[in-house]
Predict the structure.
Amino acid sequence: MRQPVWKTYKLYIGGKFPRTESGRYEAVRDANGALVANMSRASRKDFRNAVVAARAAVSGWSGGTAYLRGQILYRAAEMLEGRAAQFVGELERQGLSRAQAQSDVERAGDLLVSYAGWTDKYQALFGSVNPVAGPHFCFSSPEPTGVVAVLTPRRLGLAPFIEAIAPIIAGGNACVAIVPIEASLAPISFAEALHTSDVPAGVVNVLSGHRSELLPHAASHMDVNALAVWEADSDERRLAEELGAENLKRCFFPTPAVQDEVTGNPTLLMRFQETKTTWHPVGT
Amino acid sequence: MMSASTLDISPHLARVLDANGSAPISPISGGLRYPAPSIDEVGVAERVARFRSRSIKAESKRAAIDLAMRMIDLTTLEGKDTPGKVRQMCAKAKNPGAGAPAVAAVCVYANMARVAREAVQGSGLHVAAVSTSFPSGMSSLSLRLEETRWAVSEGADEIDMVISRGRFLAGEDGAIFDEVAQIKEACGPAHLKVILETGELQTLDAVRRASEIAMDAGADFIKTSTGKVAPAATMDVTYVMLCAIRDYFERTGRMVGMKPAGGIRDTKTAGPHGRHEARRRHPRHQNRHRLPRHGQRNSWPRLAFPRLFSHRRQRPRQRFTHANRQRAHQSLPVAALLLRRLTAVPTLMAPRSKPRSLAAKNGSAAAPTPETTQNGVASDGGSKEAVVPARAAVNSFINETLYAPAPESADHVRLEAKYPLFIGGQWQEPTDGGYVKTINPATEATIAQVATAGQNDVERAVAAARGAQEKWARLPALERGKYLFRVARLIQERSRELAIIESMNGGKPIREARDVDLPLVAQHFFYHAGWADKLEYAFPGEKSAPLGVVGQIIPWNFPLMMAAWKIAPALACGNTVVLKPAETTPLTAMKLAEIFQDAGVPEGVVNIINGGGSTGAALVNHAGLDKIAFTGSTEVGKGIMKALAGSGRQYTLELGGKAAHIIFEDAPLDEAVEGIVNGIFFNQGHVCCAGSRVLIQESVADVVVARLKRRLDTLIVGDPLDKNTDIGAINSREQLGRITTLVNAGIEEGACIYQPPQALPSRGFYFAPTIFTETAQSHRIVQEEIFGPVVTIQTFRTPDEAIEKANNTRYGLSAGVWTDKGAKIFKTTSALRAGVVWANTFNRFDPSAPFGGYKESGVGREGGVQGLRPYLRFE
């Protein structure tokens, strides 16, 4: 009988798939105790490397056209669709029913398509031409905050991961996603889909790791502009804001949308945007 | 660079090119266009508005009118002119009567030049003849040259010509140059006045370019208008022409005269009462002439001395046309000293061939002598040229005569001796706080006592706000808005009083409190009042509700404006507030409390408690609040974020800044210099978004710094209540200490300091406007927010370097860009990491324009629809 070729799960940093520099791993097992995979347990150093990669990616990703960002995210959805069976299989092996896994992966793809559509639209909804009382033309428009660290939902599935990262990257930010180890198989595999969909290296970085270990590093890192902690408890909120205050990090604590929501949430996207107001005189 | 020989150019132009040693012109598709700096119309209008907002006392006005009269050409230019009429006019010119001084010249058609010459013989009066097919120049050049020679032979010692506007507007600059140069040659010994007819040139760019051509081609005077076509001597145009003269003088050493002319027909018009008034009172003048634009009214005394030239420079000759002046309507006491002081200045008539060296352009050709400012700091002092004897005279003229003290009367202001806390719509004594003195930083005198709130008082205020919140939120939204509209109106009605108190308590110049702060305060309430009933349209697809009770902590730099920025949106969104003004500036907030009372705003909706850091901390830590809105320093802002961490209480933070102000080489430089001044010296530099780091492209750095220093020399530091003060008092002794410490650090780190020589008042807290050059990115003065009238100058070579330097800071509140190139504006403004970016302007604010910072300059926005969101809860 042919033996299947097992997959090695690693991290995704700056468009590469390195093992954690710490050499630590954690075994993920199925309900019967069989090994599914040895997942990397990302360290502070991995996080810092990911931030460097993300920072380097910001100007290219935010500087391109919104249309291009939309096409690239749509391309990622295409890749996701093509590898749906793989993600479903991974989720099934971790205990989801086939139906649950399928619906989760479908929703993940749909969310990505929806956010792909938002890339060139939210500016018009949330920007403004300001009727100032003087001979000036004045307008305000959203601009990406920069590097966003995101601690994704604990729930098993690909959709929760997409729900957490899509509003960040659709708005032109680069992100470092910290995914709970037990829920990280599909997200790490999805990084391979991203890798083949023209998303530039560093725009999305995926670390499987422990929240309790990495949150303080994410919150205190001085080159992270915003921090989103999904399903945060009160201790995590306090820790994030206390440490985040050091560089006035924008801290958000989103909760997952109702299960069947597939339309991207523009107000969530706007949490990772700054408003820039520009003035110019009107004259000859 | 295109050399002269490769161009098909006129011999006259070639002569200038040779003399200058380099080509001052550049070929542009199909014609030669004179290089002239671009002018930003709106910037000029703002600059001129600053002149207009100055207060000029009667004595100064009289002096200015006297000077203006001495510059007049008394003119008659009509077909019915007779020798008798001309002789009569000449008699008036020599002795206008009523104690008025003699005018400068009489102006007639060439055929009357001989009559006039004989009539004014021996009086020193000049005879000017309009010539060259006046007023439109619609004839051949040879005829006009012939007419010029004839007028001079008939006795004219000044010739008035008009340029061919059509050809100028068609871009035939070389032809215009030739025309002026040849007529100048034909004038021989007579002076040439070149009339630009600025009303027809339309744009200030064209006015500037025409001025440059005329001066380079040899004009002795440039003149706005014939007066025949349309009144054109607007302040904007006159300002631009004076700037051109000043720059030409610095470039060549030759002083060209200025003649704002057109449509001034009697002394009433010329005087401080303004043209409009004169017209109204002379019915026979009605409908005969277009009513003057606002800019022309009441402009003479200001036009006479617009302070373009700092007191260490020479003024241009100025001459005014005063056509058809029949008699002096009023007696004008002669301020004889004035003219003597000014005319004591030796006229500088450098040879035309003086080379234009870059050094001369930068005003540093004449041996700079180090001098010591009152702060004991060596400065390069700029050039002295030949005007040193005049400097003291002009200086004293400016300070004593032109801008005689114009203190705003505080009689109207009612201040109580003591202000308790404003809680639940009542004035309440503090239970565990006390009373502290609040002073006028300009004099250090105590002006009132205010209560400070203790922990228990904070409790009471929060309870009052909580008690009122539900009812306030349940009010029909339009009714809620109507209270705010009412507040806006009451503020407008009491704005003079409020402006005076703002100035007295905070140290800001009354002019700024009156012209900037108070209008914005009223507008903020008016703008947000209108949002109250429209919130569901503001956030389509979302369901919003008020947050509840908001604690608001504001700084001392714009006490009332910050109160408005905080209170107006909070109330419009259905919240109630507890506001804590800054410790040093509580008084206008107390007045605002009176207004809320008068407006009948329900009790408890607005509560105002004073106090220092401990009161603020009590508010921040109060669990009964739903949100803290804070404006102040980044350090305190971080503390607030930490204090609120994990509490679920929301926050918006408007914090510090260290704005970069980028000046590209193609910027309208004069307006950019104004922008720098406005950017850093507005409100003594106590502005979080102040343009405190100026980055200048290397190619124009010297000239911009030189002009900036010259402009600094004209700023008046002093009594904030004086309507002519530019820089008022530093808000507190503590802040003065912080500024001094950082400035000393700058000196120690090796930056070069410049402060204008000006005595500061002996009492009160003052700091001279300060420029640091030779600064490095690592200097403390470049990195830290100084919050005072101190600006650092750095240079850059490429746009990328400018952006890199601009963004190299932990702050990101505001930034400025000056360039004439649209594409470069958008590239730069997009790349700057700052919440507000001003392009070709600076320090503009509006309630409809969101304001707030990137990075460590804060979280959240205030103003506009974006500023409502932080005051609402979304489901």
